[in-house]
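Our consortium's second objective concerns turning raw sequence data into structural hypotheses that experimental partners can test. To show how far this objective has progressed, the report includes one record in full. It was chosen at random from the queue rather than selected for favorable results. The single chain below, 222 residues long, was entered without modification.
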Amino acid sequence: MESPGPTANPKQVLVIGATGRAGRRLVEYSLEKGHHVTAFARNIDQFDLKHQNLRKVQGDVLYKGLIDAAVKGQDIVLSVIGIRQFRGPITLMSEGMKNIIRSMEEHSVKRLLTITGAGILQEDEEMLIMDSLSFPPNLQNLSLDHKRVWKLLKASTLDWTIVCPAFMHSGEKTGNILVEKNAYPRKAQNDVSVEDVAEFITEAMLDPTYVGSRVGIAHPIV
């Protein structure tokens, strides 16, 4: 499936966590669609992408003043901060999201999309996937922080969307995905490419369909 060309209504887009796998692809896809992008990361000096519509900002989501400076003047915020160590208590995503939400509300920026794991999707009407017996114990602390992110966003005034893939791999963009609101897609694999997730987000950020929803996304079983 061919990606649509540049949008007729370009936006100011802030990508928080721009140096990660998903963050870099979000920056690239947003630029391809004609948006003006601010790439925000702690190690932004390692970000080698260059473009006339790209601004690079060094910062840390745990410092609200740095987030304030980056959020001001934006139309859309994409937050894809993550961690590499899953042991022990995890609070980075929720503590960072507190600062992001406060800054966005103070600067009247409404649209936010972020990525979490699939653990906060519904297993059924009563239970989340993370609460099921089959959920990996080593991902429990991570999912608990993702759940806190969800709770913060539900209590905010933002137009938020949480994209919830299972395992994200570095395969090619296929355009062949299954998407379901608030649950993991039926007849889906347990993985999806980072490229397909980034493509979905750059389309969804201008689409009200998924506002106020968690979104399960995966490749179909073939």
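The partners drew two points from this record. The longest strand covers residues 159-165. The two ends are 17 Å apart (CA to CA). Both points have been shared with the crystallography group to help prioritize constructs.
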